[in-house]
Amino acid sequence: MRDLEKASGVGRETIRYYIREGLLPEPDKASRNSARYSEIHVARLKAIKRLQEERFLPLAVIRTLLEADDGDRWLLPEAFPMLDALLAQRLDDAGPARVALTELALPDHGHDHLADLSIDIGEDGTISGRDAAILRTVQRLDDIGFKSELGFDGGQMRLYNVLIDWLTAQELRHFLEHTAGHVGEAKALEMAEQGIALINELLGQLRTRALLRKLAERRRIANDNI
Questions:
Q1: Among residues of the chain, what percentage have pLDDT more than 90?
Q2: CB within 8 A of 40, min separation 6: which ones?
């Protein structure tokens, strides 16, 4: 048991719990007070740990994956990372080409937003196509009057970044925990790719509806106070 703890990084009480729950096979009993564990115990423990930490999957789902006909694939080190790395690569490949920052012709105050929006500038002075699109959108907002002197400043940009970071962390965790582990790698990748644009559209619709409701509530309160 001591060797198994050291090899897997999992404590003995957790190992015993996994054996009771059927996530690990029973060890070979060498005697009444000793047992022999094999490499399969090490591989399964490492797979369980990574499925929990990297996929956020509950034990019931992990047991289902390991007991499936192709369950042994989860025991292989090369099984990780899979979905997240593939999705990131596909999204990156599908994105627009990098753009030289000088091509955007930003006004002087436009450069103030680079840090607020977490824009990464390469050593060659280029930024990603997505970052360029973000800056162009910010410039369009500036053109119609959303300027820093009217409150649309770095604080507002940082607020958007914080909200988006929190939201996407929750989305990724939920997708990996409740979707990816149930439909298979290929289907999950297809769903994620197609779903991003649709969820972006859904978020815009929900935000517009929420703004309209807030405005209606403000009108109602103002009318009540007349």
A1: 25
A2: 25, 75
- Assigned fold of 2-79: Multidrug-efflux Transporter Regulator; Chain: A; Domain 2 (1.10.1660)
Instruction: Give the per-residue pLDDT at 161.
Output: 87
The answer to whether residues 131 and 157 touch, using CB atoms and an 8 Å cutoff, is no
What is the value of pTM for the model shown?
Answer: 0.58
> What residues have CB less than 8 Å from 47, skipping those under 6 apart?
62, 66, 74, 75, 79
**Residue among 134, 43, 149, 210 nearest 51 (CA):** 43
- In this prediction, residue 147 carries a pLDDT of 82
What's the mean per-residue pLDDT of the chain? 83
- Residue spans of the domains in the chain: they are 2-79, 83-224
